[in-house]
Amino acid sequence: MGGDGEYQKKLKQYYNHLNKKASYWLNKSKEAISSLKLNRIFSKFNIKQIFSDKKSNIKIVNKKRFIITTVALVAICIIAIYFSFANNAFAVLVNGVEVAKVKDTKIAEEVLSALKQGFEEMNDAAVEFTNQISYKKINASKKELLEGKDLEEQLKKHLDYEVKCAVIYADDKPIITLKNKAEAESVLSAVEEYFIKSVEPENIKEKSYAEKVEIREEFTDISNVIDIEDAKNYVIKGTSEVRVHKVEAGESFWSISRKYNISLDDLEKANPGTNPERIQIGQELNLVVPKPLISIKTVEEATYIEKIPYEQKLELSSSLYKDQTQVRIRGEYGEKEVKAEIIKINGIESDRILLSEKVIKEPKAQILVKGTKEPPPKKGTGTFSSPARGTITSRYGYRWGRQHNGIDIAAPIGTPVKAADGGEVIFAGTSGSYGKLIKIDHGAGFVTYYGHLSKINVKVGDKVYKGQTIGAVGNTGRSTGPHLHFEIRKNGSPVNPYKYLP
Q1: Which of 100, 110, 270, 419 supports an S-S bond with 464, CB 3.0-4.6 Å?
Q2: Radius of gyration (Cα) for the chain, nearest Å?
Q3: Is the Cα torsion angle 16, 21, 26, 31 positive or negative in sign?
């Protein structure tokens, strides 16, 4: 730029110098012509003088004409030279800064068009330059002018461009940028599929986004574009973090949630469509609680059978102890057919709207009988009663080559187990081959054992009376089937229960 200014300055100085010279000779010529005219006027009165000077005047006129013609030609040449150099080129300006000089703006436009086409082919998308490109008339020497590859390389250094991409918006906020509209639509389809995979398609009445979701095609920097698989994961989870757990033998939803300090609710949210009761060995569970950037809302119309709870009625009986309750008539649930709209956000129910219901079966009331009789003292009486109803399947004594320290009473799981006599509970828990076990101290050196239980209703330190329900028959510990193992021990040694039972 500095060289061009100096060149223009010298050219103007030279032009001004020549112009002054031409003006000088032009003025001289005018003076000569004026003088010649005056001489002719005055010589009208001297015919002889006119004829005597005729030859001389012709010479003077010819000389003046030659001078005028020469001066005019020089001036024309000077003007032509000036205009041939002045404003004979164009500067290419990028954001107001000169970056190249060209003979004609068409040359620059053709190169810019070729560059744009190359960028579009490289990115497989439309592009637009982000710079402000303009031109300014200048004068420049031939060696300063650029064209072809030289001009292309020079412009490429100074040009920035943006690529036409597809941006997914949620509630008018940009959330992610994809290469094109097809990829953006693929991401939205993947989000929809992920969140409604647990919903039966035929039950879906309505399906929509919880937000205002749209795809806009915009020009943006190529660095903003996200890989399609990463985009799917990011939109679904709201983060690029990935943490998974592969289910191993013996694990459950509960144990996995404890292992990673995640609540059961959050673990379920992280795995929509997964049944917590039916996870399989080798199954991968997501550990990152999703905070999706886009939510899918579904409205399902469902018809299902719902239980109608039964009423409970209480009757009193003097034949039962005060702490005893028996079921005289077992209640039965009723049934009703329900039609409802189930609204889910990302596969998780958020609301349920009842449409109609129809009773199919009326419930049947349950009648309980509660005792009013004072219970016996909670201490040993010295006599024992059978602890459960059932069939004796194994007696006291040697069995299969080893000592059997009690009797086995076969009964269905859940059959009530009662204290054989009053006393204090000294053990209630799990004990090796006994499984769930209760021990009761009846005093006078007697202790009874109740093994393989499915349920324990008492705790250590409780006082119980003879006939009080303390647990239920089970199949825990080393057991070949549901039964109660019952022992009576005297001063720590097993004795035959038959000697003490009625």
Answers
A1: 419
A2: 55
A3: positive
Check if the beta carbon of residue 207 is closer than 8 Å to that of residue 297.
yes
Say which range, 162-166, 375-379, 424-428, has the weakest mean pLDDT.
375-379
Q: Structural domain boundaries of the chain? A: 2-85, 89-159, 302-372, 376-499
Q: Which amino acid is at 110?
A: E
Options 2.70.70.10, 1.10.287.600, 3.20.180.20, 2.60.40.1120; CATH for 376-499 is 2.70.70.10
Residues sharing a CB contact under 8 Å with residue 299, sequence separation 6 or more, in sequence order:
204, 205, 206, 207, 341, 342, 343
How far is it, in rounded angstroms, from Cα 292 to Cα 233? Answer: 9
Task: Give the dihedral of Cα atoms 344, 350, 355, 358; nearest 10 deg.
Answer: 100
For the domain made up of 302-372, the CATH class stated in words is mainly beta
Whole-angstrom distance, CA of residue 429 vs CA of residue 460: 9
Answer for the pair 419, 466: CB distance below 8 angstroms, yes or no.
yes
Residue 484: how many other CB atoms lie within 10 Å? 25
Q: How confident is the model over 398-450, as pLDDT tens digits?
A: 877 788 999 999 999 999 999 999 999 999 999 999 999 999 999 999 999 99
Query: Angle 80-86-88 (CA atoms, 0-180°, nearest 5)?
Result: 105
Residues sharing a CB contact under 8 Å with residue 457, sequence separation 6 or more, in sequence order: 469, 470, 471, 472
- Non-local CB neighbours of 180 within 8 Å, separated by 6+ positions: 125, 165, 166
Q: Which of 470, 474, 454, 473 is nearest to 462 (CA)?
A: 470
Q: For residue 157, give the 3-state DSSP assignment.
A: helix
